[in-house]
Design brief:
- There is one protein chain.
- The chain starts with a helix and ends in a 6-residue tail after the last helix.
- Helix 1 packs antiparallel against helix 2 (41-68).
- It has one domain (3-175).
- It is built from eight helices and no strands.
- By secondary structure, it is mostly helical.
């Protein structure tokens, strides 16, 4: 594998995680009915969908470039079956689980009307599991995990998602009155 392929695999993973974090943040804020003074809600929802779609493409690019690696070779089975990899099997397995859950969530988006809003939304909560598994995968299996810039990215991402979820939970508890509960 050339250095370009190795850098591409690492970069695709970091970009995928950054996009996933952005998508989780947008989705959490949208579900809490956060509003922008400059963008209408439909535009923010479209950006959320686009970022989620881009996330999937960068996850796919990450997997393909990892498969091209000859220094730490992975077979197709090792990237599709959790805990099958010889390199850091638990952490790579978390990445596999995250990618497969992401595909499942994408399928629920395709069949949203058939599933109904309630089931679709419940399935959509799996995105938090994808995000958490993706973060753990990057920290545990990533070759750059100890780099200060990537540690900062993880701290900002975790802090941002935690703040958005806290805001969403607080907003929801304010929205629910005793008569509506």
């Amino acid at each position: 594998m050339s250095a370009v392929d190795w850098y591409a695999a690492r970069a695709a993973g970091v970009v995928a995680y950054t996009l996933l974090t952005t998508s989780v943040l947008l989705g959490t804020l949208l579900s809490g009915r956060a509003r922008s003074r400059t963008w209408p809600a439909f535009a923010v929802a479209d950006v959320h969908r686009f970022v989620a779609l881009l996330t999937g493409w960068f996850v796919a690019l990450h997997v393909v470039t990892v498969l091209l690696d000859s220094v730490v070779p992975f077979s197709l089975a090792q990237v599709l079956v959790p805990d099958a990899a010889s390199y850091r099997p638990f952490w790579v397995g978390l990445g596999t689980v995250a990618a497969e859950l992401l595909v499942a969530i994408a399928l629920t988006n395709l069949y949203r009307k058939e599933l109904g809003f309630r089931l679709w939304r419940r399935a959509h909560y799996l995105t938090f599991g994808v995000w958490l598994a993706g973060a753990a995968h990057g920290i545990g299996a990533g070759t750059d995990a100890s780099a200060p810039w990537l540690r900062l990215l993880y701290v900002v991402s975790v802090g941002g998602v935690a703040a958005a979820v806290a805001w969403r939970v607080a907003r929801r508890s304010l929205d629910v009155s005793p008569g509506r509960a």
